[in-house]
Fold these 4 entries.
Entry 1:
Amino acid sequence: MTTPGRSPSSGSEAVHEPVLVREVVSLLRPHAGGLYVDGTVGLGGHTAALLDAGAGRVIGLDRDQAALAVARERLRWAGERVTLLHADYRELGEVLAARAVTRADGVLMDLGVSSLQIDDPARGFSFRERGPLDMRMDQSSGETLSERLAAVDEETLADVIWRFGEERHSRRVARAILAARDRDELHDTADLARAVRRGAGRGQWQRLDPATRTFQALRIWVNDELERLEPCLESTGGLLSAGGRLAVIAFHSLEDRIVKHTFRRLATDGSVFTLVTRRAIRPEEDEVSGNPRARSARLRVLERAA
């Protein structure tokens, strides 16, 4: 998205297309004097839209320092209205407390992988390009995929691929990956994708590359993406002002299921929270045609009533 009234830039920033922007702005209802949090700022698209729509101030967090560098450049025009921090959205409570912030008028969490991460082979997220076995969203900490695969056993790996990728041939795929590792044939993402396809079998090739589910599972595993998501949603709801809203964009069924069930439980536990979206909001056809990566996005919104 090119921010209204701003000139487009080059590089990764120019091709970045945040999803469901119109819907996010409409549902978070930014206003002058309001404080909003973008828990996964990425390249700054949603933050820019909130500021343009009148948000008084936005605090943006991201685990990816490369993305933050792009976002800082893109949002330089906003001056003191925006604060960008290297932090995990699951640390939101601590981050706000450190800045003496006790309430926010709106919080957005976009749980997807950014175009910057997917399109850069050096990050190791894509099975379509040769890159290192990394997959960390925060390259300043944590184990790489290579380090995790070096120590994992077949049963654990198969469980990861099944739980996080819903790959029905998880055991065969895990066996093929570790066989390649033990033969010293697992050096990059191209080698990994080859091993996954070998394990899945040729009969599984339809519209979806067999590596898709396993690469998703391994990315979730490396970044602990589903860990603490539910308690994070609960604690974030507690940080909202009366009338404040929490908006979450999920991209696969596992995380969307957690968001849906957590929101519903919070909305039925008492009169504190209400569901703004009874069903997940999906992108319109025109958005998907212009940005195919948006097709799996699902937006849910919760409001603090009191």
Note: The mean pLDDT is 91.
Entry 2:
Amino acid sequence: MPDSKVMLITGASRGIGKQVALDGAREGIAVVVNYVASEAGARGVVDEIEKAGGRAIAVKADVSVSDDVDRLVETTMKHFGRIDCVVNNAGVGNVVALDKLDATQFEKTLRVNLLSAFLVSQAAIPHMKPSGGRLIFMSSGAARTGGIISAAYAASKAGLEGLMHYYASYLLPHRITANAIAPALIESDMTKNVKLPPPERLPLGRIGRPQEIWPTVRMIMETEYLTGQTIHLDAGRYMT
């Protein structure tokens, strides 16, 4: 399948990133599973994809570090020869009360959640320009409401959407679109550590599931006429 699309997903050893990798591979997309700590998790994702007949590689890289990002993109090009879609999914979301949040924690959150998206996008864009591509940023409703995790998390997600808007404005002549998906309360390791609202306060009486993200990712990948948008995938919790 030499002409299949290639999707690079950061933070793809678990949670939303893992599910997007599995769902994309089922539709014939070659997947780069990026991870920083969980090698076993990343290898498990790749094994599952390959057993189903798909193509995938796992690449360890701290995407908040420029040299690691360069190696990640170089490895992707070496194996697959192209990059069609980048899903900037890597992120941290530690619950920290405002009076307990310090500069070190704030800076770490911005590095992982925001700087990483800039570094990976910047490294991938030159390889996307010849034939166009998609930049997808995993944001959060916290970018608008502040959320329930931390001030650092909310700020990082708001910054992520500002970055997305800039790319959308300047990359359209190269047929590269940039959009954000803002899920809310998706089943993941992050929400395990968050005090969730009672079911009666949730639109569907439940939080979201990782497999509910892929249809939106697919739509973004298939639609050249959509850019500069944040799609709120939250069952109407935040309405625009």
Note: The first strand starts at residue 6 and ends at 9.
Entry 3:
Amino acid sequence: MTEELIIRAFDGYALGATRYLTPGQARGHLILAGATAVPQIFYRRFAEYVAARGYSVTTFDYRGVGRSAPDTLAGFVCDFTDWGRRDLAAVVEAESAPSRKLGLIAHSFGGHALGLLPNHHLLDGAWMFGTGSGWRGWMPRLEQLRVMVLWHVIGPLLVQRHGYLAWQRLGLGADLPLGVFRQWKRWSRFPRFFLDDPTEGDIVRNFSQVRTPFVAVNAHADRWGSPAARNALLSGYTNAQWRAIDIDAPRLGHMDYFRPQAVDLWVAALDWFDALPARRSA
């Protein structure tokens, strides 16, 4: 039971989205804000499970990715802040209704995007999987070497040839706009990612304004979103009540939170949303 739809971002850009419907009266609505370079189709199994549990769900692609991509990314102007301030913000606005609970399921960058939203007050709560700082220092030594090669060898060569980060050719995910690649590369120099970037004062202020309660789940085996990386980045949410959950599962990597072996975490997230009061409607 799905609906394919177009949601207009705050600047009018057309975003491809899918709404998963639940039989009968929904207990609330969840928006899934995905990870960098991960199209929404990856989250289909999770969204179907959530809908079967009684929550309707909206997945979408950020501009430049999946069903929201232009014919070519060469010359396409876009960065991470567009994904949060314009794209996710528009989905939150479109799915907000005073009479129902509205929550955010965030994967990796999706947890960053909460802090970019101009309308975070419309959310009753959020549950994050694998959100953390992208600083290579939080990663295992071998992963640090791989990231260095990506930023300084492979990435620049792909950008020089194609005009964007043509990641799909390497099987690393969806292709990414040039602006996203440049921001990602710059912010990865800082232990707290963009929070330590002296040019990003607006982001720091926006993070401090968020009061949406949330839970952040990170596995020790997650090379890109370890508990240490989480604590570094989420320290920017200075006025939000949040709880950290560390998972000691040796095979739970960065993409595995949305695979069947993590179904117990899905149950925990939905149980948490069940108990969460709908602050806005109250």
Note: The chain has a mean pLDDT of 95.
Entry 4:
Amino acid sequence: MKRERLDNGGGSYFATPKQDVSFISTGCRVLDLALGGGWAERRIANIVGDKSVGKTLLMIEASANFARKYDDGKIYYRECEAAFQPLYVAELGLP
């Protein structure tokens, strides 16, 4: 995958988005660039990290963006840390 430098003087490199893959935005431009265009559609995403670093929030934001793009789409989510709160999720825009 080709990489290009983001002109911020910080020395960060980001993946160039592929043209043949559809993406769903993460809601954060820098994260979209780091992932190569956002969350790749028709792919399984596995978010791994320490406790309380925002994994569930990333999933909620990705799912809400997916639900906005595809009204009849299905979202499958497996919660391992019991951090999923339905009322909070509804406030963030996930149906």
Note: The mean pLDDT is 78.
